[in-house]
Automatic annotation (TrEMBL):
NCBIfam families the UniProt entry points to: GGDEF
Segments forming domain GGDEF: 260-397
Organism: Bradyrhizobium betae
Database matches in InterPro entries: Cyclic-di-GMP_PDE-like, EAL_dom, EAL_sf, GGDEF_dom, Nucleotide_cyclase, Rev_trsase/Diguanyl_cyclase
UniProt cross-references to SMART domains, sorted A to Z: EAL, GGDEF
Pfam hit, one: EAL
Membrane-spanning parts: 37-56, 62-83, 104-124, 179-199
Keyword Membrane listed: yes
Protein name: GGDEF-domain containing protein
Keyword Kinase found: no
Keywords: Membrane, Transmembrane, Transmembrane helix
Span of domain EAL: 406-656
An example molecular function term from Gene Ontology annotations: cyclic-guanylate-specific phosphodiesterase activity
Amino acid sequence: MPVANLKSHVAAAMRLFRVPTDPDLTRAQFDAFSKQIPLLYFILMSNTIAVAYTYVNVAPDWLTMIVPSVLTVAAALRTFWWLRQRHLVRSDADILRNLRATNWMTLPIGAGFTAWSFALYPYGDPFAKSQVAFYMAVTVIGCIFSLMHLRSAALIVTLVVDVPYVLFFWATGEPTLKAIAVNNLLVSGAMVTVLFIYYRDFADLVASRKSLLAQQAATQALSDENFRLANLDSLTELPNRRRFFAELSSAFTDAEPRSVRVAVGIIDLDGFKPINDNYGHSVGDRVLIEAGRRIREVCEGFGPQRVEFARLGGDEFGLVVCGDPDDTDLLRLGERIGDQVKLPYQVDTAHTGLSCSIGFALFPQSATTAEALYECADYSLYHAKRHLRGRTVIFSSELEAEIRSRGVIENLLRTADFSTEIDLVFQPIVDAMSEHTAGFEALARWHSSRLGLVSPADFIPAAERIGLIRPLTQALLVRALVVAKTWPDHIRLSFNLSAHDVCSAEGILPLITIVEKSGLPPHRIDFEITETAVTFDFVRAQQSIAALKATGCGISLDDFGTGYSSLSHVHRLPLDKLKIDRSFVADINENPVSHKIIKSLTGLCDDMEIACVVEGVETRGQLDSLRRLGCDYIQGYYFAKPMPGDAIGGYLAKELQRLDGAATPAAKVVA
């Protein structure tokens, strides 16, 4: 046989006597082995005591008393040591070291018991000698079975005990003992074969279990990742809406039985949509990510309350505040968030700014269910955006009364007869220099049979919420056009459209049809569109405005300066008039800032070659200041309050008399 082959066979044989180093296999071996090793020592001790007892009167004391005692005590100590190992948590290196130590300890222990047995043999009679042969055969079989999980140790015991055993008893020449030796050799060989098969199956089982655990770990990791993705907002990497409501439900379940406070907050970024429209969605996404990061830092550093933060969608974020917060805590949290959101955002080469409105609701004061608590927070946000933009609002009894009132208005509006309950009044729009009426703005008034006079600020939003705004707009436009046909040809009609009218194709087309059927020339009609409608969906609003312009109607941008439309919007729309909100007029003669704002806006109108209309003029001093600033048209109580349609004829007649009577003084004033 070549030397190389011999070396390889020797190496393979040597590997059989080594402890494997695979951590999973060695740990499995150790766990199984540690449960069986006490049984091995029990077999050794009981069989040893039995043989020693047989020879106690025929062999020397050192062989029947001292040596068996030493061997038994050693076995007992090892048994006690192994019993202790079953309750200890060991490292892979520790397990490998113990198995290797056990592997090598089988050599002296096996040799010691074998040598003792051979030393006793000569002192016995045939029966005693047969017992030694039986003792060694049975003990080695028991040891092999007990060591089956540590193949190397079992093989060492087989070689250390069986080889001397066979040689010793074969050398006696006694046929019975020779037969016993051969029989033991055959049985040991069969057991070693079984040992190899069992060990192979055991190793395969461990490997299979390892593979199964790896698959389970991979499956669990995939499940965890899917759960994470299902609860994560892909843009901001914040918890998403689903995760938010799960946290809210959990927090509510925890707080309810303990009667501790928990709060829900909803944050809306004010001024985000113009950033999207002006700079594009990629820039808008970056601003959203940065705003989310800032708010999260505030929430993480807000103690002692725990704040869960999530993105609900669009530019809206949610908060769940645990830890028994009170109103002061919520206002402090809202202030910190607002301060961070207001900091400038670097957008390419320019800087832009945002603010945020926040609505909070507190359990148990505001609501007794998680769903109702969220609805209360949503209404607080709605109130903040309408009346306290950029501020924090906590749900209160006053807001609860508003909700009830809003519900009553919505229910009554659903059953209202538009033709009898909702009237139109008209407010003059006057030429600033000549003081001649140039047109009238149509304004809706609802006289409810149950509520009395309901403000447009209440029922118009209600009609938008319940989907009645479009039929209401169409019904009122028909009636306004009928009234406008009775006016002189130079008098124009201004009519307001909502965001729902402007931002849907089904809202504009019926209005165009109504105008065409009315018989009133389209050039005498101005449709007023708010900044909110423009920013709600600029592209759709642009298309609707283009369609109205194509029919010959004029377009006015209403309430300019109070919303979040940008100058780029103004430049990109085919506007005829810009209406400056009344909030800048009230203190125009006392507040230099208001004066400068109106001056800037009138300059903007001059640059764009569109007319400038100012609302809310109530005094002669305001009118004179607006004239000096170059405003084109005036609207306000200084000239007239809104009036019914049948009063317009008388108003125009009185105006004509007034202006004719004051023609010369007026000319002097102008000069």
